[in-house]
Amino acid sequence: MAHTIGVSGLRKRYGDVQAVDGVSFEVGAGEFFGILGPNGAGKTTTLEIIEGLREPDEGEVTVLGERPWPRNAGLLPRIGVQLQASSFFERLTAREQLRTFGSLYGVAAARADAMLETVGLADKADVQVEKLSGGQAQRLSIACALVHDPELVFLDEPTAALDPQARRNLWDVLREINTEGRTIVLTTHYMDEAEILCDRVAIMDRGRILEMGPPATLVRGLAAPTRVSVASGTLTPEDARSLPGADEVTDDGVSLVVSTRDPSAVVAALAARDALTGVQIHGATLEDVFLDLTGREYRA
């Protein structure tokens, strides 16, 4: 696979804070690549260096075969950037907003109008941006990043603060964009989002990449127990602890949960006791991998 992005030995310091500390990775053409990490992990700084918005202290970066710094005007028509905070021209409608962005790249009005359809905002074309919902504003922001048909798209926490329905609608938009062959680099705090959308993810903390690979591969590599749950009262916690393969049992009054390394033995034993009411089986997730690597303490 051809490489769209190459990062080697990247470092960036702000005073006493080492924001990025020796980061190296590559992103293939057409790949959906995620960068995950807690607050202050260095995700946004890494992205801004790759985009050519910040100068690295050390390291090398190539984007589409070129160096983004010093600010490379030749790259601008080939990349699209959606930042954490979206800023629009005041009092313009969604159509006028998108046409204005498009005009900066010599894009025809018809192309800008077509992007409204792509992101599901055709019915909001004449609505002023101040009156759009959070999800609609995020979709318009992504449309602005795509209006000039870039080869590479950077999305910095595009679904932050959106409700579940708006997030999932936006996921559909992102899948379609990627299916069209564009390379996407995404930062997000939502593990389910990364697990569903990304071909590969890099988990960062304290400026370093801790693990990198396809989400399913990272999850399989985590030696985490499977959780088998049934409705409380189906059997007592004491009976559950006697089940073959049961390692730990908890009961919160709603669900009785058995943690096990041998889920088939536990499920078979529950079936033999006719105790499968409300049964659910939960394996490890990317969130488990994330917490195992970065810890569980709160980060402001």
UniProtKB/TrEMBL annotation:
Pfam families: ABC_tran
Membrane topology: Peripheral membrane protein
SUPFAM superfamilies: P-loop containing nucleoside triphosphate hydrolases
Enzyme category, top tier: hydrolase
Classification via CDD domains: ABC_DR_subfamily_A
InterPro entries: AAA+_ATPase, ABC_transporter-like_ATP-bd, ABC_transporter-like_CS, ABC_transporter_ATP-binding, P-loop_NTPase
All copies of domain ABC transporter, residue ranges: 5-231
Localization (cell): Cell membrane
Nucleotide-binding among keywords: yes
Sequence similarity: Belongs to the ABC transporter superfamily.
Name of the featured protein: Fluoroquinolones export ATP-binding protein
UniProt organism field: Actinomadura macrotermitis
